[in-house]
Amino acid sequence: MKTEKKLGIWMDHSIAHVMEFTPNLVENKTVVSKPLHDSKEQSLLKGESNMHIKEQHQQAEYYKKLGEIIVNYDNVILFGPTDAKVELLNVLRANNLFAKIKIETKQADKMTENQNHAFVKEYFSKH
Q1: Does the N terminus or the C terminus of the chain have fewer Cβ atoms within 10 A?
Q2: What pLDDT was estimated at residue 42?
Q3: E-strand stretches of 36-109
Q4: Would you state the pLDDT for residue 39?
């Protein structure tokens, strides 16, 4: 029987801490959403609508990067303080590539790296 690959991701709208869970340790990697390069003044001159479209493209690219990682796993927990985890889950559920992956979300505060690892270990020891 194939060993189930497990992944924990603490995330908000700007950064994701990706942690692969193995029986003895949690391996860590970070994915960062690209900041918008326009200054506020330039953005205001170009218009709020244009800025909003750029933010949407930036967020879509961020979620795409995370999806490229998640597709290689069987069981994923998305956790963090913002709605980013739910937004990502909705994006993933709209794509059939993720249909067989068990993905769950949990609310969590900002955590240290050790707290993230403990959260992932505890979650997967129960599931």
Answers
A1: N
A2: 60
A3: 75-80, 102-107
A4: 52
Amino acid letter, 69: I
Pick the CATH number of 6-126 from 3.30.420.60, 1.10.287.70, 3.40.190.10, 3.30.300.30: 3.30.420.60
Phi first, then psi, for residue 3 (nearest 5°) are -75, 135
Owner of token pair 């559920």? 93
pTM confidence score: 0.85
Beta-sheet strand order (sheet of 102-107): 26-32, 15-21, 6-11, 75-80, 102-107
Closest C-alpha among 39, 47, 24 to residue 124? 24
The reported pLDDT for the residue numbered 52 is: 73
Q: Over 80: is that where the pLDDT of 32 sits? A: yes
Burial state string for 62-75 with b = 16 or more CB within 10 A and e = fewer than 16: bbebbeebbeebeb
